[in-house]
Design a protein that fits this description.
It is a single chain. By secondary structure, this protein is an alpha/beta fold. It is built from six helices and six strands. Helix 1 packs across helix 5. Bound molecules: inosinic acid.
Length: about 190
């Protein structure tokens, strides 16, 4: 890593997200520093959730940081669970999602990620990413987290749960959003 490398605080309690952020930002020489402080969490679209949380956390702790919010949007369920993905994963889980889709013809879905950066006295800036795919009929793989074992990205032969960290980050919603952030951050 060059001596001129920069760093950014990442406010999250999800170690899977930290591993991915480190992998994604490594080529930009941006060091990701996990930070356990929390901003206010509202129920809204993911971009708004990330943006509000980043802005309240940056002011509360007096430091510049990023917050990421993500969700799984299933076509046959009109975009559900979307912003409720975390709650649905903890309650219904993967099995519950598969049951909801048992009678559906379409298994199309996508993940979206919104990365919000905010400075203590600034306004939040949001970067978004998306990856499309389908929900498989059963879980495959133990890598990643959340719904990864049942998400088959378009043009991929393996679920996200079977992809390596590097393979997932190269095509994921989070990879796209964080690379957009990293490119912008380095030009500031
Ligand atoms: P949050 O951004 O922590 O609110 O994430 C919401 C939920 O969406 C997580 O608990 C996961 O269940 C799911 N999710 C978000 N990103 C991913 C991913 O990259 N892979 C699998 N599931 C994800």
């Amino acid at each position: 890593m060059p001596a001129s490398s920069r760093s950014v605080f990442f406010a999250t309690g999800n170690t899977g997200k930290v591993d991915e952020a480190r992998m994604i930002m490594e080529p930009f020489a941006i060091r990701v520093k996990p930070f356990s402080g929390k901003g206010a969490e509202i129920q809204a679209d993911i971009a708004e959730v990330a943006s509000y949380s980043a802005s309240t956390a940056a002011r509360r702790y007096g430091r510049s940081l990023i917050v990421e919010d993500a969700g799984l949007f299933v076509e046959a369920l009109d975009g559900f669970p979307g912003a409720f993905s975390s709650y649905v994963f903890e309650t219904l889980g993967i099995r519950g999602l598969l049951t909801l889709l048992e009678q559906s013809e379409s298994r199309n879905a996508y993940f979206r990620s919104a990365v919000a950066y905010c400075e203590p006295e600034g306004e939040p800036k949001v970067f978004e990413g998306k990856v499309s795919g389908t929900i498989t009929r059963s879980p495959h793989g133990e890598n990643g987290f959340g719904f990864d074992p049942v998400f088959l990205p378009s043009n991929a032969k393996k679920t996200m749960g079977e992809l390596s960290l590097a393979e997932k980050c190269a095509i994921s919603h989070r990879g796209e959003a964080m690379r957009k952030f990293a490119a912008w951050y380095l030009k500031r």
